[in-house]
């Protein structure tokens, strides 16, 4: 069993995609062990995306991710980290596998609907950044 951090980004929430994405997660068989709608502070956004701080798109990325409510999700399941990344598809929707969330619902890299941790280390870090211990099911 593995846990990962998933997020429906502001574009996905704004476009009413939350039920569709939660349905895909549940059909897949992952257990939702944490779930909340929230607006991300600038500080949390800059920490979350800290690895991209020097990239030219960093400012836009922080503006975008703090620009409206997101849905933060803690998922649990077998190989949940790579499995959720596979369900999302590649970062650039043009390269995302057919049937993946980003292929089905996004057209630009900047607004690509969902986030997923990319390694066990980032999953632990991101779950800790977005959820207090008491907010996650045992
Ligand atoms: P991922 O979200 O697939 O983990 P990432 O960690 O490389 O991708 O980048 C984080 C987010 O930053 C990504 O979802 C969208 C944005 N981003 C990445 N590369 C970008 C680019 N070249 N132009 C604009 N936004 C970009
Ligand atoms: Mg990433």
UniProtKB/TrEMBL annotation:
Cite the InterPro entries for this sequence.
NDK-like_dom, NDK-like_dom_sf, Nucleoside_diP_kinase, Nucleoside_diP_kinase_AS
GO MF annotations in UniProt: ATP binding; metal ion binding; nucleoside diphosphate kinase activity
Cellular component terms (Gene Ontology): cytoplasm
Which residue ranges does the record assign to the Nucleoside diphosphate kinase-like domain?
A: 1-138
Q: Which EC number(s) does the record attach to this protein? A: 2.7.4.6
The biological process GO terms on file are: CTP biosynthetic process; GTP biosynthetic process; UTP biosynthetic process
Q: Where is the protein localized?
A: Cytoplasm
- Please provide the record's keywords in A-Z order: ATP-binding, Cytoplasm, Kinase, Magnesium, Metal-binding, Nucleotide metabolism, Nucleotide-binding, Phosphoprotein, Transferase
Q: Which PROSITE patterns match?
A: NDPK, NDPK_LIKE
Instruction: Cite the Pfam families for this sequence.
Output: NDK
The organism's place on the tree of life at top rank: Bacteria
Cofactor or coenzyme needed: Mg(2+)
Active-site residues (renumbered): 115
| Primary location class | cytoplasm
Give the residues the record marks as binding ATP: 9, 57, 85, 91, 102, 112
Q: Which reaction does it catalyse?
A: a ribonucleoside 5'-diphosphate + ATP = a ribonucleoside 5'-triphosphate + ADP; a 2'-deoxyribonucleoside 5'-diphosphate + ATP = a 2'-deoxyribonucleoside 5'-triphosphate + ADP
The record's listing under SMART domains reads: NDK
Quaternary assembly: Homotetramer.
Q: What does this protein do?
A: Major role in the synthesis of nucleoside triphosphates other than ATP. The ATP gamma phosphate is transferred to the NDP beta phosphate via a ping-pong mechanism, using a phosphorylated active-site intermediate.
Would you identify the family this protein belongs to, as annotated?
Belongs to the NDK family.
What's this protein's name?
Nucleoside diphosphate kinase
Source organism of this protein record: Deinococcus budaensis
Record gene name: ndk
